[in-house]
Amino acid sequence: MVKSDEKVYPPPDDVVSSAHIQGKEYSELYRQSIENPDVFWSLQANKLLTWNKKWRSDTAICAYNFDTSLGPINIRWFEGSELNLCYNAVDRHVEAGYGDRVAFYWEGNDVEQDGKMTYQELQNLVCQISNYLKSVGIKKGDDVTIYMPMIPELPAAMLACARIGAVHSVVFAGFSAESLASRIQDSKPRLVVTATGSKRGPKEIPLKPIVDEALDICSKQGHMVEKCLVYDHHQAVSKESVNFHSGRDVWWQDAVLTQSTSCPVERMDAEAPLFKLYTSGSTGKPKAVLHTTAGYAVGAAATFKYVFDYKPGDIYWCTADCGWITGHSYVTYGPLFSCASQVLFEGVPTWPDAGRCWQIVDKLKVTIFYTAPTAIRALNAKGDSYVTKYSRSSLRLLGSVGEPINPEAWRWYYEVVGNSRCPIMDTWWQTETGAHMITPLVGSTPLKPGSATLPFFGVEPCICDEKGNEIHGEGEGLLMIKRPWPSIMRTVAGNHDRFEKTYFGMFKGMYFTGDGCRRDSDGYYWIIGRVDDVINVSGHRIGTAEVESALVGHPACAEAAVVPVEHAIKGQAIYAFVTLMEGYSHPPQDPTLKEALIGAVRKAIGAIATPDFIHWAPGLPKTRSGKIMRRILRKIAGKEEESLGDISTLADPSVVETLIALRENS
Ligand code: 6R9
């Protein structure tokens, strides 16, 4: 981590003069957003979106309670208003004469596969999907699960839900059948939308068989999904190669493309649920983060416009999948609210080689490029020639999200990818926050590599010590937020108690982010990483409890404890300590057991949760009350046993030496 007195990168003059927010404007607007949120957010909401009905002007723009001792946590923004997010993302642009503008430039996995969809075409498709959904009885408030590859039909399906008021729950198409099943089981949709499959790199990824398996699991557990709408994505996986369950399955091409291309929009209340997105926490099963309509829209629209400094003519590309929050706010909603033209990429950045992103940048003249540190490090490792082979002269702004970006990766991104011309917006935020929270603004924030810099409008961060005392000025501690911002999640669907405990149970009256953070003498924020039992693998959150429960699900595993270790490309990797059942030795005789345990995790969660290390552990370091001391396991995994600290509180301190000795055999 660099210190604050190291090199800073002020915004270039030409960038400042054309930016939406210039120089000192940021601090003035920020102050207004905190001191007078009603004025600030009314203006933004009026400017950024089209409303069927405006919010009440006789009450505060945000009504909330952040303090469990005063009653249930609740947050309401723009009360009394009505709007439809699909209308805002699509129809109003067509009405304004932009029907011919490209909404999506689709780039398939293989170089020769591509396509385009204009706003007019998107409107037609969204209406057809909406009409199909209505024809099978889906209505306002109903859940729809979407498990699809990165093709325009994925955001279109999300928008169709928003159009008719259905609540979408997109599950990343890399999750296993069991994970998908548990999400379906939790939200109980009557309909699931999927595709035959996808292709990523050299691999064909059949999706329909995974959905079949998930739906089987669900029906055994008592939830019958009535309809499964399947897009025949023949460029990746053919229709002929997948099973078809007549009565339940329906081909998209038959059922959707035959519908009428007009469909009225539902007027939605400000606080009507918009979507659920499952994310990992420190305990138990992934939780359904619930976002609602008006506040989320204002947050996504404002951050997209100001953080990326979007202007008509920009070609924007966010590499995130719609299965993650980044793909919700910065593929489906934010850019379309601005009538932007964007790239949707189904493949991987290293296929057919590590120059793919820059080939696409040159081909489509991409001006704004937003990706994750793990991708930057992976491409950096392949060498500069894959980048310098392409001109990249269209690029003007770069973005980073998902985990702290190490200054080395930042500099490579800045100097090599951006030719030292393009400022990097390092955006800190979360599934729960809905939109960017701590981020530079291109025309006003001097950059420091590795720092997400300063809070966005309306965001009031605070750093607390472990007792909940606020640290003013410079310091390090837990990152909390003191007041609601428009796009904050409203609840954990079906479990408000978990919402309150997880986010408001740490210190009274504040939202707990789960991250550790340092503030420097310039007031810049430096995110350190999760302080809870969440591992950030390639920018994706994996709960240690989920991996442990998958391991323990294997008959040979008696107990498991999972910790993060540093990884050069992924940021963090999963390191699992495994105690086998009675009768097994550590390490076990059976050489296939390690693979079998790893397989159990992939089956329960998906390939993204694959442990990189299995460490055989005849015993785990526990306190006398039986609590596993993960702090010690982290040190052993990271080969930092010289700084183990006090181990005298362990029930059996000798396990530490046994584990160190066994490390080499694992
Ligand atoms: C958007 C997203 C959230 C967690 C968050 C933090 C980490 C995200 C970051 C960052 C440092 C950044 N994180 N962006 N850490 N700098 N720019 O990633 O949402 O998947 O919910 O993850 O990711 O630890 O708490 P989500």
Question: Which structural traits does this protein have?
Answer:
single chain, 666 residues, alpha/beta, Rossmann fold, GMP Synthetase, Chain A, domain 3, 3 domains, 8-stranded mixed sheet, 20 helices, globular, binds ligand 6R9
What does this molecule look like?
With 666 residues, this protein is α/β, with parallel strands linked by helices. Helix content is 31%, strand content 22%. It folds into three domains: 13-84 and 277-529, 3-Layer(aba) Sandwich (Rossmann fold), CATH 3.40.50; 85-266, Rossmann fold (3-Layer(aba) Sandwich), CATH 3.40.50.12780; 538-662, 2-Layer Sandwich (GMP Synthetase, Chain A, domain 3), CATH 3.30.300.30. Strand 9 and strand 10 (203-206) form a beta hairpin. Helix 4 (85-98) runs antiparallel to helix 5 and helix 13 packs across helix 15 (407-417). The radius of gyration is 25 Å and the shape is globular. It starts with 12 loop residues before the first helix and ends with a helix.
Instruction: Please list the strands of the largest sheet in the order they lie side by side.
Output: 12-11-8-6-7-14-15-24
Estimate percent helicity.
25-40%
How many individual helices?
Answer: 20
The figure for the number of domains is 3
Heteromolecules bound:
ligand 6R9
Q: How much of the residues is beta strand, in percent?
A: 15-25%
CATH topology of the largest domain: Rossmann fold
What CATH first level of the largest domain would be assigned?
Alpha Beta
Category from helices, strands and their pairing:
alpha/beta
GO molecular function: acetate-CoA ligase activity; AMP binding; ATP binding
Domain AMP-dependent synthetase/ligase: 96-489
Organism: Chlamydomonas eustigma
Family: Belongs to the ATP-dependent AMP-binding enzyme family.
